[in-house]
Amino acid sequence: MHAIARWNPEDPGFWNSAGRGIAARNLWLSVPALALAFAVWMLWSVVVLHLPAAGFRYSTNQLFWLTALPALCGATLRVFYAFAVPVVGGRRFTALATASLLVPAVGIGFAVQDPATPYELMVVLALLCGLGGGNFASTMAHLSLLYPSARKGTALGLSAGLGHLGIAAVQMVVPLVIGAGLFGVLGGAPQHTPQGPMWLQNAGFVWVPLIAVSALAAWFGMDDLAGTRTSFAEQAVIFTRKHNWLMCWLYLGTFGSFIGYAAGLPMLVQNQFSGVEALPWVWLGPLLGAVLRPLGGWLADRCGGARVTFWAFVAMALGAIAVLLSLPPQQAAAGASTGGGGGSFAGFVAAGGLLFAAAGIGNGSTFRMIPAIFIAERTQAAGPLPGARRQALQDGNVEAVGVLGFASAVGAYGGFFIPKGYGTSIALTGGPQAALLVNVFFYLTCIAVTWWHYSRRHAPMPC
User: Which residues partner with 197 through β-bridges?
Assistant: First the structure.
C-alpha cells in the first residue's frame, strides 16, 4: 500500500501529475519527526545545566562529556542510517527510528529524579540520545530520492532547517517545563532547590507523547520507494570517490560547527560569563542557524553551492576570531574556571550570531553541492545515448544519497569535538581560546578546499 514501484521525479509529466504531491506529503511528515530527533539529541545540552541544582555533583569536565557524547554516538549511527533507507525503505525506517527516541526520553525522565543515579548510567543515556542524531541521515537520504535535481537544494534545506528547530525548541522548552508539575503524580516528585521546586524529569517526559504521535504519522502517512532499493555493497562505491571525502570535510565545517556550537554554547556561556543571565536565550543561536539553512539551499540552487559555501566559511572564520576577542582573559592556572569579569558579552553574542548564521547557510549550500557533484560526474561519463544517461542519472542519485548520509555522519562529529574541545582546553589552559584557534585554522582549510576544487574559475568540479 505504501510501496511505490515506479518513481521518476526527473520526468516533468510524472512530477507534475503525481510526484510533487507524494514528495510534499513525505517532506511534511518527516519534518516533525526530524525536529523531535534533534530535540532528543541535544537534550543534554540543557539538562546538564540543572544537574547541580538537582543534587548531582559532577565536575565541569564530566558535564562537558555528557553534552558531547550524544553527538559522538549520533555521528557514528549516521553511517549506518545513511545506507538503511535504500535497503529498508524511507517510511518504515523513519517510523521505527522515531519510535526509538522513546527510550532515552523516558530513561532521562526517571534517572534525573535520583541524585544517587550512577554517572555511568548518565553516560549510557547520553549515548542513547545519539539515536536522535542518526535520524538526520536517513531523512535526508529519503528526501533526496524523492525530489528532482533542480529542487533538491530547497527540499533538503527546508527539511533540515525546520528539523534543526528542534535544537532551539529543546533549549527554549526545557527551562519552562521543569518549573511545573505537568504530569501530576505520574511525573514524580519535584527536586527542591534554593530557587524553588524543579521537575527536571519533565525535560525527558515532555517529548514522549509527541514522539509517539510522530512515529505513528510516519508509519501510516509516508511511502517506501521500492524501485530505488539497493544493497550496501552497491552503495559502498562512494568510499572510492574523491569528492565523497572532500565533501565530508566541508560538511564537518558547516554542520559540525552548527551542532557543536549548539551543544557547547550553554555550558560555555555559564563558564565564561557567570554574572550574565543569558541561559534563557541561548536557543536563539540555533534558531537563527536553523531558519537560515533553507536560505542556503535556495541560494545554492540559484547562485551555485560552491560560491555560497566559500563565503559561508569566510564568515565563519571571521566569527570565530570575533568570539576569541570577546572572551574574558584566560586564567593562568590550568583547570581554573574563567567565569570572572572581563570580556564583552555583547561582542560574544554578535560573533556567535554570525557563526550560527554562516553555519546555517553553509549547511544548506554544502548539502546542495553533493547531489550536483555526483549526478554531474556520472552523467558526464555516460556519453550522449539516452539509455546510458538515464542509468547514469539513477547511479548518480544513489551515490549522492550515500554521500549525503555519510557526510552527515562525519559532520555530526563536530557536535562531539567542539564541546569536548572547550572542556579540554579549559582544563589544560584555563580557557577555551586554544579550542577556538583550532576552529579558525580548520575554517581556513575549508576555504582552500572549496576554492580549489569547486568555486574558482576552471575548478575541476564547479557546482
Answer: 192
Say whether 113 sits in a helix, a strand or coil: coil
State the sign of the Cα–Cα–Cα–Cα dihedral 127, 48, 97, 357.
negative
* pLDDT at res. 230: 60
Exposure on the CB side of residue 433, measured as CA atoms within 13 A: 15
* Residue 179 and residue 203 in contact, taking contact as beta carbons nearer than 8 Å: no
Q: Comparing C-alpha atoms, which of 344, 330, 343, 314 is closest to residue 422?
A: 330
Query: How many Cα atoms sit within 13 Å of 180 on the Cβ side?
Result: 6
Q: What pTM was computed for the model?
A: 0.79
Query: Rounded distance, CA 379 to CA 309, Å?
Result: 24
pLDDT along the chain (463 residues), means of 10: 79 88 93 95 92 89 90 88 80 94 96 94 96 87 82 78 89 91 86 88 96 96 76 73 94 94 85 76 87 87 92 97 90 47 84 95 90 82 70 75 82 90 88 94 98 93 89
Answer for the pair 107, 213: CB distance below 8 angstroms, yes or no: no
Angle at the Cα of 45 (from 312 to 351), degrees rounded to 5? 35
Interaxial angle between packed helices 345-382 and 386-412, expressed in degrees from 0 to 180 and rounded to the nearest 10: 150
For residues 25 and 47, what is the distance between their CA atoms, to the nearest angstrom? Answer: 34
Round to whole Å and give the CA distance between 233 and 83. Answer: 10
Whole-number Å distance between alpha carbons of 279 and 142 = 36
Class of domain 3-455: mainly alpha
pLDDT at residue 336 in the model: 46
For residue 217, which amino acid is it? A
Distance of CA 196 to the CA centre of its chain: 34
Q: What residues form DSSP beta bridges with 191? A: 198
| Burial group, residue 256, by CB count within 10 angstroms (0-12, 13-18, 19+) | buried
Task: Please identify which residue in the block is written with the cell numbers 562525519.
Answer: 410
Amino acid 164: pLDDT: 85
**Predicted pLDDT of residue 334:** 41
Give the DSSP per-residue string, 327-388: SPPPPSSTT----SS-S-HHHHHHHHHHHHHHHHHHHHHHHHHHHHHHHHHHHHHH-S-HHH
Cα–chain center distance at 228: 26
Q: Which residues are 196's β-sheet partners?
A: 193
DSSP-assigned letters across all residues of 406-418: HHHHHHHTHHHHH
The pLDDT score that the predictor gives to residue 149 is: 75
Beta bridge partners of 3: 224
Domain ranges of the chain: 3-455
